């Protein structure tokens, strides 16, 4: 009885997964001032968060992946691969939707004194990051835009370091590490806002 229930559960999960809309995420572009946004990394973060959300079946259309798939199919047709494990031609599914994205703001600022005066105490730095991500999801069959929005992610941090750390140039040496961390948190904030909005759409009625 337990085996029958387990099989039914697995079948149900498989059917449920197949019922999800299929989405491919295209390469993000960096349109921020200065052009320093890591568009590829932000795209990967978006894919990861979408995967966790379970809204779509994510379709990989990366050129290297497609080339690898084509090569495997070719080797199977030439009899170089065990037929029981060979990839069958014509089994790839087409995505229903495509996501495109652009990073339109990637901003970091740092204010405050980097050097402490022993008599007065410590040095204080206020760090702020803003990341704006514009997204579109297009229905590939109709060309209609299903989702179009921009979300602003923000992250703030204030650090208070003692005179010795400031004297040793702590702030100068850690600038890149600190800015990267604050920007990453702001980016994640923007990504999570988008994912929450996308989850709110009734995709079953599309």
* Order of helix and strand elements from N to C terminus: HEEHEHEEEHH
**What name goes with the CATH superfamily of the largest domain?**
ABC-type transport auxiliary lipoprotein component
Helix content: 40-55%
Domains, number: 2
Query: Main β-sheet: number of strands, strand sense, barrel status?
Result: 6 strands, mixed
Folded structure, characterized:
The chain is an alpha/beta fold. The chain folds into two domains: 22-59 and 95-205, ABC-type transport auxiliary lipoprotein component (Rossmann fold, 3-Layer(aba) Sandwich); 63-93. 40% of the residues lie in helices and 28% in strands. The chain is built from five helices and six strands; from the N terminus they run αββαβαβββαα. The chain has helices spanning 2-19, 39-53, 63-77, 163-167, 170-199, and strands at 22-25, 29-30, 57-58, 97-112, 123-139, 145-161. Strands 1, 2, 3, 4, 5 and 6 form a six-stranded mixed sheet that branches. A hairpin with a 5-residue loop joins strand 5 (123-139) and strand 6 (145-161). Helix 2 (39-53) packs across helix 5. The model is unreliable at 1-17, 114-122 and 163-175 (pLDDT under 50).
């Amino acid at each position: 009885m337990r085996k029958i229930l387990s099989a039914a559960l697995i079948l149900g999960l498989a059917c449920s997964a197949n019922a999800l809309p299929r989405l491919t995420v295209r390469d993000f572009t960096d349109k921020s001032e200065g052009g320093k946004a890591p568009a590829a990394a932000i795209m990967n973060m978006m894919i990861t968060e979408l995967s966790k959300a379970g809204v779509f079946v994510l379709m990989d259309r990366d050129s290297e992946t497609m080339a690898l798939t084509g090569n495997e199919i070719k080797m199977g047709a030439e009899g170089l691969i065990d037929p029981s494990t060979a990839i069958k031609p014509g089994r790839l599914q087409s995505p229903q939707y495509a996501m495109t994205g652009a990073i339109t703001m990637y901003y970091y600022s740092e204010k405050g004194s980097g050097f402490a005066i022993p008599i007065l105490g410590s040095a204080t730095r206020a760090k702020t990051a803003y990341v704006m991500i514009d997204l579109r999801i297009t229905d590939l069959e109709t060309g209609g835009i299903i989702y179009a929005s921009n979300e602003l992610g923000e992250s703030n941090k204030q650090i208070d370091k003692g005179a010795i750390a400031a004297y040793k140039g702590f702030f100068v040496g850690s600038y890149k590490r600190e800015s990267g961390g604050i920007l990453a948190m702001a980016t994640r904030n923007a990504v999570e806002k988008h994912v929450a909005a996308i989850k709110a759409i009734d995709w079953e009625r599309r």
